[in-house]
Structures are given as structure tokens and as C-alpha cells.
Predict the 3D structure of the following.
Amino acid sequence: MKLYFKLKSPVQTLDSVEHPNLVCVRKWPSKAARQWSEEFVRTAPKQLNIDAIIAVGSAIRDVSESADIDFIVIYRNNKPKLYKPPIDVDIRVYERTLVPKLLSKGHELLGWAVKMGCVVYERNQYWTKLRSRWLNRVHFPSLEEAKARAARAEKLYQEFSALGDQDAADEQFITMLTHLARARLIESGTFPASRPELEKQLLSIGEPELAQKLAKALTRRGNDTENQIAR
């Protein structure tokens, strides 16, 4: 007589943890940024108050380069302990009970994360479940806010230009063009992607002039950065 044994499936505890993974990061801004990020997600499971880490921005998109890497950290109760990151790593933290409320109010960064972000660590599939609930409910970024930001950047651009601070003026010029681009895309019903992708998006909605201005400004900044490094 043959005996058959029923194998028990692995039991997942309430604190089951998905393995951290940075494979979705396509472009690292620097070696220091990569090393810090790898250590950050490697040690994240040790902090039981971290429910998810989501990578956002151009570093996870199909672009030629990225100036920085951005992470969203969702936590519960007490804020997690984070070591100071390199200048090209940006961390935003949100308490988990506030996330649905912020999304319902049209929070721009969290909305972008739901639409285009990449989860690199989560506990108990927190982000996967939240994203499935919100993916088709995310609000478009505010058109009024995009226009207001463009206007503020234009004012600062003029002020820095008058003071002779060309580097600061150039940065505000790029910021102005970025928000103008976002405003045009929002008006057309296109969800804005990362900054390096805006040129292609603008061309797709028939805005070649603005696309060319933004591309030229970004190229000039990239060339200036390379020249500074070469010195």
C-alpha cells in the first residue's frame, strides 16, 4: 500500500517580508548613490516600521541619464532611522495612515509613484495591494499648481539673471520650462512622466517649440556639468 503525504505550504506570518530588489533602477547618478541605496534597502527589513520603499523618477525610466535617484518610504508609527544620503539621493517619508488621504487629495508624488513607481521593498505586499486599489483612481497633477510653479520659477529666473548669477538663473529656467511642459501635458490629458521624457511627450501632443526649448536647456546643463567635472 502506498502512502501519500500532503506537503504543507509555507506559512506566512503577519510580518512576512518581500526581498528587497533594486533591479528596476536603470540609471544610477553616481557610485555613491548606488552604494548607499543598496545598503539602505538591504537593511530595511530590520526596521519593522518600514512598510514599503518605492523608487520614483527618471532613474527607473528608459532615459539616457538621471541626475538623482528618488525613494518614497512608507512607515507606520515612528519614523524610520535613515543615515544621511549622498546629495544625489532624495528620500521622502510618509506615514502609512496618511497615504490614502493624500492620494484622495491628488498628492502629486504619491500619485506618480502609483502610476509609474517601482517597489523595491515591501512588507506583507503593502504597496502592491495599495497600488491595485488606487491605480485607476489617481488624480492628475494640478494644472493650476503647475502654472503657479512655472510663474514662480520665471520670477526667480529674472531675479537671478539681474544679479548676474547665471548658474542659478539657468536652473530656474529649466524649472520654469519643466512646469510649463507639465501644464501643457495635463491640459492635453497626458500624465507627465519624468523630466527627461517630457520632450518626447510634448512632441506627441504637438508642442515642438516647448519640447525643443526644454531639450536644449537640459543639454546645456549636462554639458556644463561635464565641463566642471573635467576641470
Summary: The beta strands are 50-56, 69-75, 89-95, 118-122. The longest strand covers residues 50-56.
